[in-house]
Write a structure and sequence with these properties.
N-terminal domain of MutM-like DNA repair proteins, Helicase, Ruva Protein, domain 3, DNA-binding, single chain, 7 helices, 5-stranded mixed β-sheet, 2 domains
Length: 273
DNA sequence: CAATCAACCTGGGTGC
DNA sequence: TGCACCCAGGTTGATT
């Protein structure tokens, strides 16, 4: 579910709400969500640590804790991370609760794919983090870098955009939207794109991600922000999840195909093969 | 190297 | 109403 704009939204909200609070304990309802350390050690290791800051890397959330520890969270498809001060009954599918000195932070995840890691240092030993490519909204994601990656890959461009080692944080929604904005068919081979198309796509990626953030994320199914509220970017999507509806640019019916196992939406007129 | 598929899960939607 | 089946903002690992 959550891609870069959704995780960024949660990060910003949590940074404002829980920075400086102390974790007084954790309740684990589903042990497998703890990737590291052993679930039995998790509670005692995190207890008493203060949240010094909240960061994001790709689709990962990173909580800097006192004592040189880092809590890493990945929400995968349906994970929700919600901070609340009213301690009502926990919703279904809540698998982990952090008790804070003010309020609580809960991980609720219908599909149970989300994972958390509690590691020393800044999360450096979470190998999934080390492999990530550049942040698309940082200066590290240059046009030169992106064009070079395109040039040396025969993969379909959509698969390349979803590869977190190429660029971190793009998921199925924003890949479709970026390709549409750049006028590139999702099944094109990366190395077949012209320099002009590559530049347009580089620009489109940043554009659609910034828009998604401005709208506090896309809520199609399960996504809610750190306050439990839906985002609004679903109302601004041009192709994703809109099969059969007219393209906002040209009125052509939007098509849906399966690419690399993922539902893929595009406008056959704006994005010719 | 690239593509496909199964796994990991639950629940909503659809068609018979 | 029931049931079988497909689908879903992700990622990994096995196989072809």
């Amino acid at each position: 579910m959550p891609e870069l704009p959704e995780v960024e939204t949660i990060k910003e909200q949590l940074a404002a709400k829980i920075t400086g609070l102390t974790i007084t304990g954790a309740t684990i309802y589903l042990e497998k969500v703890i990737a590291v350390p052993a679930p039995a050690r998790f509670g005692e290791t995190i207890r008493g640590r203060t949240i010094l800051g909240v960061n994001r890397r790709g689709k990962f959330l990173l909580f800097d804790l006192s004592g040189g520890y880092c809590l890493v969270v990945h929400l995968r498809m349906s994970g929700q991370l919600v901070y609340e001060t009213e301690a009502g009954p926990l919703p279904r599918h809540t698998h982990l609760v952090f008790h804070l000195d003010r309020g609580r932070l809960r991980l609720t995840d219908l599909r149970q794919f989300g994972r958390v890691w509690l590691v020393p240092a800044a999360g450096a030993e979470v190998k999934e983090l080390r492999k990530l490519g550049p942040e698309p909204l940082s200066s590290a994601f240059t046009e030169e870098y992106f064009l070079a990656r395109l040039q040396k890959s025969r993969r379909r461009i959509k698969a390349l955009l979803l590869d977190q080692e190429v660029v971190a944080g793009i998921g199925n929604i924003y890949a479709d939207e970026a390709l549409h904005a750049a006028g590139v068919h999702p099944a094109r081979r990366a190395s077949d794109l012209s320099v002009r198309e590559g530049k347009a796509l580089h620009h489109a990626i940043q554009e659609v991600l910034r828009e998604g953030i401005a709208h506090r994320g896309t809520s199609i199914r399960d996504y809610v922000d750190a306050g439990g509220e839906e985002g609004s970017h679903q109302h601004f999507l041009k192709v994703h999840n809109r099969a059969g509806r007219p393209c906002p640019e040209c009125g052509t019916r939007i098509e849906k195909v399966k690419l690399g196992g993922r539902g893929t939406y595009f406008c056959p007129r704006c994005q010719p093969l």
